[in-house]
Fold:
Amino acid sequence: MVVKRLQEGVDYYLEGDLYVFTGKYLLERGYCCGSRCHHCPYPKEVQAESVRRRLEGHPIRNCAEFEAALKSSVKPVKQ
Structure:
């Protein structure tokens, strides 16, 4: 597993004592964690599903869980 060292001003910035991730970093990470990040690049529907899962005690913790959640939450198109 490759660990990327985060760069201040590129991947995040400090707002008081809080680390605020940039949209660039969040997109590169590859999934919405449901923490209501200020710069979340994912569509509102995806964010809502991630928040719902987090509040239910089943937070998304990696790309594989994110992909599985997206597949299970996608409604089939009626023809």
